[in-house]
Structure formats: structure tokens, C-alpha cells
Amino acid sequence: MAGEEREEAILAATLELLAEVGYDRMRMDAVAERARASKATIYRRWPGKAELVVTAIERHTAAAMDDRADPGNLRDDLLGRMRAMRDGLTGQDAGLLLGLLTAMHHDAELAAIVRARMIDDKRRAFDPAIDRAIDRGELPKGLDRAMLAEVSSAMLFSRAFVTGEPLDDAFLTDLVDRVLLPLVQHRAGDA
């Protein structure tokens, strides 16, 4: 198996085991066995379980957000990004995310890595949409993007894990039209 194929097998095995047994019960030897790789191969690339798990989740969520065609306007671009985030939360990712959040409460190393890497990735999820809107002249350069990611993530998380209310297209459309677009347009006025 080539290096890239081996890495993909290791990351896939990591996600599968996380979904099956959770972070706390996942063992590196089980990842190695499932990926048909040695533990030495895994440890050459990732110094520990926390780094491996974060890399696997980052790669998985990045794949869902990448390669989205430009719909031609900010509103539709935001809707597409929100649908991708929603689909991740309502699919297998929900269990992974909840397990990760639970593990972060008692694993300081994992919490530090997640905060250092994944939170920035989440904030960058909207960069392609914002960049295209700037290129089209819909938004000014220098726009503060952090609030967009925070608000959108919080709203999705609340519905998915707290209130249990639907995360349907009607909600996403309302969220984009009544919250996210006004937020970005207001923040654009501050830029």
C-alpha cells in the first residue's frame, strides 16, 4: 500500500472505531489492525491518539466542505455551506462529535489539540464563500469572519443536540436570511 493510501486507511479506521467504541475506548492497536498497518507506522505520522483523531475528523469534515461550486451569490453560497454542516451533524458525524466533546472534558491533551486546530478549521469553513463574495463586490475586504462561524455553528449545534428541533431546509434558509446575511452585512459596515 502506498503512503497516501495507507494514511487514508488509517484515518478511515480511526473514524470507524470512534463511531463504534468512542474516543476513550479506541486503542491504537485496534486502529493499526483495522487499517492493516503497524503501530510504528501510525506513530511515525501522529505522536498520539489525540492528534490522530483530530486529523481524521479534520480530513473528514474538510472533504464535505471542499469542492463546492460557486453558486454566484453569497446567499446561495452560505446556504450550501450550512447544508453541508447540517448533513455532517445529522449523519455519522453527530456521534463522533458528541464523543469527542465528552472526551475533551477529561482529556486535557485532546481538548488542547481540538481547540488549537479544529476551531480554526471551523472558522475557515466559510472562507471560500466570503472570498467569492468579496471578489464579486458583495462584501468588502477585511471583513471579520469569526462571528459568522460562531453563530452558525452554535445554531446548528443547539438544534442538533439541545432542542431537537428540525434542521430542515426551511430552518437553514431562515437562518441564512434572518441571521447570517444581516450579520455579515452589518460586520461589512464595520470593516
From TrEMBL:
Keywords: DNA-binding, Transcription, Transcription regulation
InterPro entries associated with the record: Homeodomain-like_sf, HTH-type_TetR-like_transc_reg, HTH_TetR, Tet_transcr_reg_TetR-rel_C_sf, TetR_C
Entry-linked SUPFAM superfamilies: Homeodomain-like, Tetracyclin repressor-like, C-terminal domain
GO molecular function, one term: DNA-binding transcription factor activity
Superkingdom, taxonomy of origin: Bacteria
Keyword Ubl conjugation: no
DNA-binding residues (ranges): 27-46
The HTH tetR-type domain, residue ranges: 4-64
Entry keyword Oxidoreductase: no
A Pfam family assignment: TetR_C_11
PANTHER family, A to Z: HTH-TYPE TRANSCRIPTIONAL REGULATOR RUTR, TETR-FAMILY TRANSCRIPTIONAL REGULATOR
Identification of the protein by name: TetR family transcriptional regulator
